[in-house]
């Protein structure tokens, strides 16, 4: 035994629990195999995809990348930029709206508070298509269908975000502090922006991430709203690419390469961010 | 556009922070100001909620009660008119066997997905919470990873893994001369879709349950261990009952998500011929609204789906009410 083990926590037996370890490893494999497959398949040329063993790396990675980049003058990268714009812009606005709304609901007592809050929460239950189809019809009356706005505007309000910030505000912004600031004559806006927002920051980052992933992964909304494929996000772009590929298997390698590149940003985002942000925050945990 | 209403509440207060001389007169004004502040902060959220939730729902309900009447041969301006149709569209929904089938398919799919996904999520969460498990940190991230993969891309990836010509699983089956099932056929189709949903959803639910597990004070376990309880017994008798509210919550959201299955069947449709364009309720509504251009019938169907979701949600909440007596501030 090394001296390191002589801490208080180590009075318990340190044997490895094999059953949980094995179950967790199997679960990890199940979750990682499709990702690993995409990484390997992305490296295969046209001939190799259907002929070589599926987990043997191919030689066509750079060729696939070039081919995808030049496909219809690089429309794939336009999709990538669109996705970043929709998800980044939408999530930022969503965090701002949730911050203000959640702060009001969590730190003020006023008439109609519970009504507004419950009404918004009930909004979560409405099936997405019930909103998306009339949203499309209404936006097209305003001439906004098939525009960047038609993707951005419906993605801003997140009832879950408002709910999360409400919990956060109630738990992490002390009422005495707000009262003290009011005594000092600070305006409500100043109290909100200088005191409450910094204190709610972990919650706001969570809302941002949650909404970013939600918009990035959304398929139904762009599928209904957009017709012009230069405005497509990645999800819809890859889907149309596969639809064409069904008749031309030559496009399969492009779709696979596209999938590989499409999952990289979010995986990178989570790997980077988990250093200073805990997954547990997603489920509304205030203590983590 | 969303930030401007907020500034309004700031503009009403002219006094700078350091202006200490006026403190004696301030309180009353501050109180009055404070009373309107929460409304200002709520303005963006409420406006967006009205514009993108309330109005669309109202419009859908309005559409669902109307139909188009064609005058003459239907050409020229004013030849097509929206007229009141009462509950006509709704009776059509209940007579439409295709929609009924799509609901049944969604339920069948949910019967596979929900128990599997939540069962796995619970098992993984319990295993993560076992003190002597190795590789827990890695597994937590690995199992959560699919959450970061867009549903449509997950479905595309699995779609390729289901294709006999490129799939490593078929490669193994061929090598060992085992029968090779057609994953796009009949009942297997449900399993194929379910697998994609389970793959994508387990991690998130695992985190929700795991968070609940970690909030349990450790002393309970120590007391149980001193009493001679094994890890398994602690899991079954203490941990699962305590995380019941989280399980109910994840179940609740899984049921709602199941009724709205859209992405997986849409993504696999190009790979197989055996998939109807109204396989799930959402696909049926999309099909009616945009492919058959019947927005009135589609709206009625959507309203029925929404009401069914509400009814189901309230029943579930009622049933689970005794478990979820948490105070939500």
Summarize the structure in short:
Chain A is mostly helical. Chain A has helices at residues 18-41, 46-51, 61-70, 75-107, 113-123, 128-141, 148-152, 159-172, 175-183, 188-199, 201-217, 220-225, 234-245, 252-273. In chain A, helix 4 (75-107) packs antiparallel against helix 11 and helix 13 packs antiparallel against helix 14.
Give an account of the 3D structure.
The complex is a heterodimer of chains A (288) and B (329). Chain A is an all-alpha fold. Chain A has one domain: MetI-like (MetI-like fold, Orthogonal Bundle). Chain A has helices at residues 18-41, 46-51, 61-70, 75-107, 113-123, 128-141, 148-152, 159-172, 175-183, 188-199, 201-217, 220-225, 234-245, 252-273. Chain A is globular and about 75 Å long. Chain B is mainly alpha-helical and 329 residues long. Chain B folds into two domains: 4-64; 96-320, MetI-like (MetI-like fold), CATH 1.10.3720.10. Chain B is 68% helix and 3% strand. Chain B is built from 14 helices and two strands; from the N terminus they run H-H-E-E-H-H-H-H-H-H-H-H-H-H-H-H. In chain B, strands 1-2 form a two-stranded antiparallel ribbon. In chain B, helix 4 (97-128) crosses helix 13. The radius of gyration of chain B is 27 Å and the shape is globular. Chain B starts with a helix and ends in a 9-residue tail after the last helix. In chain B, 40% of the residues are buried.
| Rg measurement of chain A, Å | 24 Å
Radius of gyration of chain B: 27 Å
Give the CATH superfamily of chain A. Answer: MetI-like
Protein structure class of chain B: mainly alpha
CATH class of chain A: Mainly Alpha
Uncertain runs of chain B with pLDDT below 50, 5 residues or more?
Answer: 1-31
Count of DSSP strands of chain B: 2
Biggest sheet of chain A: strands, sense, closure? none
**CATH architecture descriptor of the largest domain in chain B:** Orthogonal Bundle
- Give the ordered list of helices and strands of chain B: HHEEHHHHHHHHHHHH
Distance between the termini of chain B: 31 Å
Q: Work out the helix count of chain B.
A: 14
- Quote the average pLDDT of chain B: 82
Oligomer, anyone?
heterodimer
**CATH uppermost class of the largest domain in chain B:** Mainly Alpha
CATH level 3 topology of chain A: MetI-like fold
Any guess at the CATH architecture of chain A? Orthogonal Bundle
Terminal-residue CA separation of chain A: 32 Å
Helix content of chain B: 55-70%
Shape of chain A: globular
Largest sheet of chain B: 2 strands, antiparallel
């Amino acid at each position: 035994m090394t001296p390191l083990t002589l801490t208080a926590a180590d009075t318990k037996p340190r044997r490895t629990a094999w059953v949980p370890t094995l179950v967790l490893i199997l679960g990890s494999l199940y979750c990682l195999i499709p990702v690993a497959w995409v990484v390997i398949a992305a490296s295969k040329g046209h001939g190799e995809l259907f002929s070589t063993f599926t987990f043997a790396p191919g030689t066509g990675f750079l060729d696939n990348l070039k081919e995808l980049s030049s496909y219809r003058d690089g429309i794939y990268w336009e999709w990538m930029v669109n996705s970043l714009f929709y998800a980044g812009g939408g999530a930022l606005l969503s965090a701002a709206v949730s911050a203000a709304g959640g702060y009001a609901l969590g730190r003020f007592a006023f008439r109609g508070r519970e009504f507004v809050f419950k009404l918004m929460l009930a909004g979560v239950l409405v099936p997405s298509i019930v909103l998306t189809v009339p949203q499309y019809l209404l936006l097209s009356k305003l001439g906004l269908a098939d525009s960047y706005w038609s993707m951005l505007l419906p993605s801003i309000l997140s009832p879950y975000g408002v709910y999360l910030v409400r919990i956060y505000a109630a738990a992490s912004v002390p009422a005495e502090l707000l009262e003290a600031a009011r005594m000092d004559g600070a305006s409500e806006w100043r109290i909100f922006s200088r005191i409450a927002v910094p204190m709610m920051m972990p919650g706001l980052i969570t809302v941002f991430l949650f909404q970013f992933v939600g918009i990035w992964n959304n398929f139904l909304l762009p599928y209904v709203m957009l017709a012009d494929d230069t405005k497509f996000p990645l999800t819809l772009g890859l889907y149309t690419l596969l639809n064409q590929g069904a008749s031309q298997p030559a496009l399969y390698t492009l779709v696979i390469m596209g999938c590989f590149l499409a999952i990289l940003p979010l995986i990178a985002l989570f790997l980077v961010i988990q250093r200073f942000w805990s997954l547990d925050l997603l489920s509304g945990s205030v203590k983590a | 556009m969303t930030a401007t209403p907020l500034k309004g509440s700031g503009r009403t207060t002219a006094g700078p922070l350091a202006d200490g001389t006026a403190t004696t007169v301030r309180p009353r004004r501050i109180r009055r100001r404070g009373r309107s502040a929460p409304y200002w902060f709520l303005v963006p959220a409420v406006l967006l909620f009205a514009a993108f939730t309330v109005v669309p729902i109202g419009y859908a309900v309005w559409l669902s009660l109307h139909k188009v009447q064609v005058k003459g041969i239907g050409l020229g301006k004013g030849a097509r008119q929206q007229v009141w149709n009462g509950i006509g569209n709704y009776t059509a929904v209940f007579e439409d066997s295709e929609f009924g089938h799509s609901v049944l398919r969604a339920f069948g799919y949910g019967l596979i997905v929900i128990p599997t996904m939540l069962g796995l999520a619970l098992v993984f969460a319990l295993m993560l919470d076992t003190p002597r498990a190795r590789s827990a940190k890695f597994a937590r991230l690995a199992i959560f990873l699919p959450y970061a993969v867009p549903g449509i891309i997950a479905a595309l990836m699995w779609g390729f893994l289901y294709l006999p010509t490129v799939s490593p699983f078929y490669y193994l089956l061929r090598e060992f001369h085992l029968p090779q099932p057609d994953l796009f056929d009949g009942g297997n189709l449900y399993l194929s879709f379910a697998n994609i949903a389970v793959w994508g959803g387990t991690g998130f639910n695992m985190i929700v349950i795991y968070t609940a597990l970690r909030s349990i004070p450790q002393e309970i376990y120590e007391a149980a261990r001193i009493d001679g309880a094994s890890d398994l017994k602690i899991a079954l008798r203490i941990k699962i009952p305590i995380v019941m509210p989280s399980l109910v919550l994840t179940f609740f959201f899984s049921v709602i998500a199941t009724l709205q299955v859209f992405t997986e069947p849409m993504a696999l449709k190009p790979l197989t011929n055996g998939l109807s364009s109204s396989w799930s309720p959402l696909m049926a509504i999309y099909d009616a609204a945009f492919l058959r251009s019947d927005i009135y019938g589609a709206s009625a169907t959507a309203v029925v789906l929404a009401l069914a979701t509400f009814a189901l949600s309230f029943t579930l909440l009622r049933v689970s009410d005794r478990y979820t007596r948490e105070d939500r501030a």
